[in-house]
Amino acid sequence: MSQKSYSLNSGERQIATSIDGIRADHRNRYTFGIEAVEAPGYGLDVFCGNGYGSKMIAMAGHTVLSIDGSQDAIELAHAHYETSEILFCQKIWPFRLPKSAFDFAFCLESIEHIPDSDAFLHEMMQCLRPGASLILSTPNEDLMPFDAKHHIFHYRHFTQDAIFSLLATHGFDIVKWGGQIVYDIAIDGRHIPLVGDAPVLLDTPGQFLTICCRKR
């Protein structure tokens, strides 16, 4: 993150203690990705936040190693989202993972927080088995331009073409993708949440893109 704040209350994190309390647009990204992963599998939830998505993955029949840089978030995850199928771990990027060990990896709303996206995607390629799935979401520069004043924790946003190209460069083929419109962006740059669930619409550009890939 640009300001290296890993606080649970930084303003960038979901903090609800139940899945129903998490904003629907966030839950919908996990649901979209889970539908692309065959069960049962052993995978990652990288930068898992408070762990609600990890529990959604586990409820779909998977076993998950879930990593986040925030000790506060991991403590909340242990308290409210832990199951026998999830191992929560606090670790700050960059870190190394065992090679060819995982059937899938989720990385939602996180790559924009990482200064070296190439290094991160290289690590994902190394740790995934051949044919494994990577589910990634990120703001879309085409519809949500990066603004350092309002996106204080981000390094960049990616255009749709740029993120598709970056994934291809690192050996991932896109299986499906979709977009969400989540905010009304005011003239002064403020993001005003829209009413509704903000579903991920297949093959439709949005302010946020969720992309399901497969390692070659």
Measured as a percent range, the helix fraction is 10-25%
**Helix/strand order:** HEHEHEEHEHEEEEE
Q: Total strand count, please?
A: 10
Give start-end ranges of low-pLDDT stretches.
none
Question: How are the strands of the biggest sheet laid out side by side?
Answer: 3-2-1-4-5-10-6-9
Average residue-wise pLDDT: 94
Principal-axes geometry comes out as globular
Structural class: alpha/beta
**Share of residues in strands:** 25-35%
Largest sheet: 8 strands, mixed
The count of helical stretches stands at 5
Structural Rg: 16 Å
CA-CA gap between termini: 29 Å
Structural summary, described in words:
Strand 1, helix 2 and strand 2 form a beta-alpha-beta unit. This protein is α/β, with parallel strands linked by helices and 216 residues long.
List keywords for this structure.
single chain, 216 residues, 10 strands, eight-stranded mixed sheet, 5 helices, two-stranded antiparallel sheet, alpha/beta
